[in-house]
Amino acid sequence: MKITINGNNIINGRIVGGGYSSVELKKVNETKRNKAEGISKIKVESDCANVTVSTINSTDAKGPYYGEAYVEAHYFGEVYTDGKPELKVTTTGDEISITVKNKGNIVNGSLELNVRIPQRVFRSISVKTRNGSVGICKDVETKWLRIDSQNGRIVSEATFEEITAKSMNGSIDICTRAKNDIEVNASSMNGSVFVELENIGSCNFSTSSMNGTVRNKNHSTGSYKATGEISSMNGDVKIW
C-alpha cells in the first residue's frame, strides 16, 4: 500500500522518497532524562519513529538520577535524510513532553523511541505518531490514555480508566485488566480493532464495521463495567 503525506511516499509503513542530492545515512542514538517528581502527565509526539512506553524502577538509574523517579527517552536507529533527527524532552508544570522530529526530507529509515516512566498511576498519557506504531506496555497505569497513529499499528496493555485510540491506517489491539469501571473508545479507518477485557462483569459498547464482521464474545466475570464506542470502516471488530 502506498500513501502520500506532505510530499512523502509511505510504502508498507516505510517512508520512501527520491531526488534529494544531500541525503545521507544518519545514525541516531540519544538518551535524555528528566526528573519525574510532581509529574502527572506524559505527552509524546513523533513524526517518523515507532514509540514504546514502558515503566522503569528508580534504582535502575545511574549517576545523578540514582534513587530518584525520572522519565527516560531513548531515540535510536538510522535514517536516510537531508535533515537532522532531533529529540527534545521538556517539563512544563506537571507535564513532561517528549518530541522527536526530523528537520528535512526522509528517504528511508528505521527509528525507535523508547519512553520509560515511573511505575505509578498518571493522570494522563498521550502518544501521537504520524508514521510509526505505538506500544503501551502492561505495567503502565493512567487514568486517561490517548493514542493517535496516522500510519501504524496500536497495541496497548496498559491499565486505564478511559482510553481513546485512533488509527487511520493500522490495526488496534487493546488488552487490559480493569481496576475500575472503564471507557473504551477505539476506531480505525483501515484496520481491525480487537479489545480483550479482564475483570469486567458487564459491557455496553456501540460497535460498527462498514466492511468487516463484528463479534462481542466477552465472558469475563468481575465487578466492573465497560462502556464506549468501537468501530472500523475497513476491518473486523472483536471484543473478548
Q: How would you portray this structure in words?
A:
The structure is a single chain. The protein has strands spanning 2-5, 8-11, 14-16, 24-35, 41-46, 50-56, 70-81, 84-92, 95-103, 106-118, 121-131, 134-136, 141-151, 154-156, 159-169, 172-177, 182-188, 193-198, 200-209, 214-216, 224-232, 237-239. With 240 residues, the protein is an all-beta fold. The strands form 3 sheets. The protein has a 10-stranded mixed beta sheet, with no helix packed on it. A 9-stranded mixed beta sheet has the order 8-9-5-11-13-15-17-21-19, with no helix packed on it. It is flat and about 55 Å long. The two termini are 29 Å apart. 35% of the residues are buried. Mean pLDDT is 87; it is low at 1-6 and 9-14.
